[in-house]
Design brief:
Shape: extended
Mean pLDDT: 79
Order of helices and strands: HHHHHHHHHHHHHHHHH
Number of helices: 17
Number of strands: 0
Helix content: over 70%
Largest sheet: none
Low-confidence stretches: 351-372
Number of domains: 2
Distance between the termini: 77 Å
């Protein structure tokens, strides 16, 4: 408790110190430039009076603008049959943005800053209005126009993309596929989870070699994973089995924490040259993981052939039996079958798209050479 009190007192002292150093005049000059109005510059009282007038006028105009925007937003929400609570938030945000924009503009006009600091004044006013236009558009869109129910219902698209979600929701056993006689999908999510496990392992191990305090890694990592778990476990508009996803997120978390602990202990108990050698191994492992993710998401023919040699049968070849519920594809069956095209990858797997095409072309080229 004593440590917490000391932390709060230090934070309060730091805030008070920074607040005492703040100068409104310096802040204004850094945005719109120095005053070029000789009448205002002739005395301190005139300068302070002009600043007060500018602030008052800016707040008044901002209030008028925000109230007008509130009425329009309330009318739009009422026509859509929605609560007008978002209009209050919109008006408050509009007021803050408009007050700043009007203050910058009126300050430059009244104090003639463009005469003394032309470039600073033009840049400041232009930037303020760009922020105003972009911010008001985004606020209005997010609070009034956007249908967040649809966005929230499709949050899993962020990770898996459209095709993987379709295959997941339309596979036999999915609670989303209402008519079991038409459940045509083949769940391909294992491809994403395998890549995610290896990626988490590499990231955890790599951070363990940094030698930094465990709290710098564990606290933000566990907070982020906790937030992801809460989002994934939310039952509203969910198209997947939340229990299964939570278990796999827990496994992914362990895949990061265990390698982190092992490499952290190794780094603390060994010389630098051994730690550097471990880092080089991890770098190689990262490259291997990158290629593994590409190969498992959309396997080239030699991977499919290997799965068939091990006893797998392409899942697509007995799709009718899957739909009828007579047969369930094994893991080898799925690997022997078609993967997910790179154009259909979602979230973090979008970036390797072009690299994936190059890798596949390379394997095809090697295959043609081997035929000769």
């Amino acid at each position: 408790m004593t440590g917490m009190n000391e932390f709060i007192s230090r934070a309060a002292e730091r805030f008070t110190s920074n607040l005492s150093k703040f100068s409104m005049r310096e802040f204004e000059e850094s945005i719109v430039g120095k005053s070029g109005n000789p009448w205002i510059n002739s005395s301190r009282s005139r300068e302070e009076g002009a600043s007060s007038v500018v602030i008052s006028l800016s707040l008044t105009l901002a209030f008028v603008f925000s109230m007008q925007s509130w009425r329009e937003a309330s009318s739009e929400l009422s026509l859509m049959g929605q609560s007008t609570g978002d209009a209050d938030i919109l008006a408050a945000l509009y007021f803050l943005i408009a007050a700043f924009t009007y203050w910058v503009t009126i300050s430059s006009v009244v104090k003639l800053t463009w005469l003394k600091s032309t470039s600073t004044a033009i840049l400041g006013v232009t930037t303020a209005w760009i922020i105003f236009v972009v911010s008001t558009f985004l606020i209005h869109w997010s609070l009034i126009e956007a249908d967040w129910v649809v966005v929230w219902a499709n949050r899993d698209l962020l990770m898996m993309g459209q095709l993987m979600k379709e295959q997941m929701t339309q596979s036999p056993g999915s609670h989303v596929c209402i008519n079991e006689a038409n459940c045509y999908g083949i769940n391909q999510n294992f491809r994403l989870w395998w890549s995610l496990y290896l990626t988490f392992g590499i990231l955890g191990a790599a951070y363990g070699t940094s030698g930094e305090s465990p709290a710098k890694f564990l606290v933000p990592f566990l907070i982020i994973m906790g937030i992801v778990a809460l989002l994934a476990d939310n039952p509203t508009e969910v198209s997947y089995n939340t229990d299964t996803v939570l278990v796999k997120l827990f496994i992914a978390t362990l895949w990061a924490l265990i390698p982190y602990y092992l490499t952290y202990r190794y780094s603390k108990n060994n010389d630098d040259y051994k730690v550097n050698r471990l880092r080089s191994y991890l770098a190689i492992s990262a490259v291997v993981t990158f290629f593994f993710a590409i190969l498992i998401m959309d396997p080239p023919q030699f991977v499919k052939s290997g799965a068939e040699a091990a006893g797998g049968v392409p899942a697509e070849s007995f799709r009718d039996e899957i739909i009828a519920g007579e047969r369930s594809p094994t893991l080898l069956d799925k690997i022997a079958g078609n993967g997910v095209e790179a154009s259909q990858w979602g979230g973090p797997l979008r970036e390797p798209n072009n690299s994936h095409r190059g890798v596949r072309n390379w394997f095809r080229y090697r295959g043609r050479i081997s035929l000769w």
